[in-house]
Amino acid sequence: MQTIFSIGLDGLSYGMVLFIISIGLSIMMGLMRVVNLAHGAFAMIGGYLASYALRDLGAGYAVAIAIAVVGTIIIAMPLEVLLYRRIYRKSDPLIQVLLTIGITFVIIGLSNFIFGPTLKPIPLPGELSGPLDIGFRMIPTHRVFVIVCGLITALALWLLIDKTEFGIRLRASVDNSDMADSLGIRTEWIYAATFALAVGLGAFGGVVGAELLPIEPFYALRYMVTFLVVVSVGGAGSIAGALAASLLLGLADTTGKYLAPEYGEFFFYLAVIFIAFLFPRGLFGRAH
Amino acid sequence: MSTLSTVARKSDGAFPFASELTAVASIAALGVLGYLLFPDDLAFLTRLIGITLLVLSLDLVTGYCGIATLGHAALFGVSTYAVGNACLGGLRDPVALLGVGIVAGAIMGIVSGALITRFRGLPQLVISIALGQLVAALANKLSSVTGGSDGLSGITPTPVLGLFHFDMYSRTAFVFSLVVLGIVFVLLLRFVRSPFGLLCQGIRDDDLRAQMIGAVIYPRLIIMYAVSGAVAGVGGALNAMTAGVVGLDSVSFERSAEVLVMLVLGGAGNLWGALFGGIIFQIFEHIVSATNPFHWMTLVGLLLIGIVLFVPRGISHGVAVLWSKVVTRGGQA
Question: Which domain holds residue B210?
Answer without folding.
Answer: 16-332
